[in-house]
Structure formats: C-alpha cells, structure tokens
Amino acid sequence: MMARRGSLSDAAWDSDSASEGSALSDSELQEAFSRGALKPGLNVVLEGRPRAPNDVDGLKLCLSEFKRQLAWVERLDVTLGPVTDVTGPVSHSASDKDAVDPENDFQREMSFYRQAQAAVLDALPRLRKLQVPTRRPDDYFAEMAKSDQQMQKIRQKLKSKQEAMEKSEKAKQLRALRKYGKKVQTEILQKRQKEKKSMLNAVKKYQKGLSDKLDFLEEEQTSSQGKKKGSGSQRIKRGPNAKRRYKNQKFGFGGKKKGSKWNTKESFNDVSSFQAKVAHNKGPRKAGKKALNKRPGKRARQKMKSRAR
Asked: Quick one: residue 79, left, alpha or beta (phi over 0 = left, psi -120 to 50 = alpha)?
C-alpha cells in the first residue's frame, strides 16, 4: 500500500508533533501553509500493481505435459483449417478468397458451424475404426442438473399456465356465444315486431273498409292445419271400444242431435262469406246515394217509437 506524496497528511507530518501521531491544530496547519508545504489534492490510497510471478518450474511442467506422446484416442483432438464446406478443409487460396469478415456475426457463426461439422465428419470414422462407441445406449441413465423438486415446481407452473390459457379460451368462446345469442335474439324480436306491425296495419285497413282481405288469418289457418296434419300423421286412429260398439248395436246410432247449430272452430275461422262493405257500411259510395243500413238519429228513433205506440 502506498500514499500519494505531497498530500495534506505528508506535509503536516513534517513537524515533530506529527511524528508522534497527534492531531494537527489550526496553528500548525497555518504554519505549514505559509511554508508552502500544503499542496492541493486529497489523501488517496493507491494500490501497487501486483507483481507477476515468474514460475519457471510450473511452465516447464506444463510444457512437458504438452509434449507427451499419447494416443489419439486419449487426446481426441481434431485440428482443421478454415472450412467452407462440410466435405473437408480447403486450400489457403480459397480461404483467402472467401475470407470471413469478423465483424459479420452471421458469417462468423456459420464458419464455426461448418468447421465443427467437418471436425465431426473427420473424427467419426476414426472412432469407428478404433471401435469406440459414438451413440448413447438406450438404457443410458444420466443424473439431471436440476433436482426432482425443482422439476416438479416447473411442471406445476407449466400446468397452471396451461390451465389459465384453457380458461381464457373458454371464456372467449362463451363471450362469443353470448354475443351471437344476443344478436339472434334481437333479430327474432325485430322480426316479430315487424310481423305484428304489418298485421295491425292490415287489421286497421280492414276495419276502415279499405281492404276486404284477411291474409294474416289465412296464413294462421294454413299453419294450424299443417300442424294438425303433422300431429295426425303421428297419431294412430283407433275405433270405438267394445262397450261403445255394444251400445251402438243395441240402441242404434242416429247421430248427434243436440247442439247441431252450434258454431265450431272451423266455421268460426271461415270468413269467406264475410263482406266488409255490407257489415260495416264503410265501403266506397257513389255520389247522391245514402249509405245502406245506416242507423237513424236519436230524434228519428223517438218519433218512430211514438208512432208505434
């Protein structure tokens, strides 16, 4: 360890009191400054350069190990020149022409890759010739660098990530299905509202006498008849039971008498003979003609009653 000369401490330690290791007072510092002993700078501790050991014996021992003549199977070293193809090394002229730019990362890494390939192609035949196995056996067992606990943690982490991805995918699919369902529902509601609006407009026109067609009722009839036909085809028609047949044979069957003039569902739905002009008296009339079946006013009805009395 060395200290820089000319620092504050070196100048102050010129006095006898400094040699004793006592702290410097203000007067002593002023005297040292007046003598010019104080110089600008800090008390910086400098480390000296480590001395390089000259281990001659160790160098000679390493050199002797290099010079040992061992078999190639003990050394397994392959030395090749610059390689441009995996078939083997090339001449110096070709290597000078195809010199690799050290600043180009791709060319540099490709040269390393090709040189390694050429070294493998050169070493494999020699190893096979020496009957040295070059392939790992099927029952080869090598201990892993990581412990089983660490691998279990990694496996659980990967599994949790996969489950999270599956959940997110399912959530995306559900959101898409919900959007599609809402879209279909809105379309159906809009269609129903449109049909309802058109039917109400047709009913209003019919009530005002502007139209004598009831297409919407005919559509309902055809749809109901189609449903009946479909349901009837599925059902199996059966005749009366044995008790009913016996009674018919004993007492006879002349048909239903009661309620023969009652209205049925078919007659109720049949509006073919209905005439809006005659029923509501709202059809187009000619000029000068009064409406048929028009109800008289209140005064006229009272006069008619008085006359009848």
From this structure: beta
Give the C-alpha separation, 14 to 33, whole Å: 12
CA separation for the pair 259, 269 (Å, rounded): 18
Work out the pLDDT band at 223, boundaries 50, 70, 90. low
Question: Which pair of structure tokens corresponds to residue 32?
Answer: 């040292």
- Residue 58 tokens read as 């160790």
The model's pLDDT over 167-216, given as tens digits with 9 standing for 90+, comes to 999 999 999 999 999 999 999 999 999 988 888 888 888 777 777 666 66
Instruction: Say whether pLDDT at 229 is over 90.
Output: no
Encoded amino acid at 286, one letter: K
Report the alpha-carbon distance of residue 53 to residue 195 in Å, rounded: 104
Q: Considering the entire predicted model, what is its pTM? A: 0.28
Quote the tokens at residue 260: 């023969």
Q: At 288, list the tokens.
A: 């000068």
Q: Which two tokens stand for residue 19?
A: 């040699």
**Distance separating alpha carbons of residues 19 and 45, to the nearest angstrom:** 20
> Taking a C-beta distance cutoff of 8 angstroms, is the pair 46, 3 a contact?
yes
The pLDDT-based confidence of 156 (bands split at 50, 70, 90) is very high
Q: How far apart are CA 256 and CA 242, in angstroms?
A: 20
Q: What is the DSSP letter of 272?
A: T
Spatial contact of 18 and 24, defined as CB atoms under 8 Å apart: yes
Q: How far apart are CA 110 and CA 84, in angstroms?
A: 9
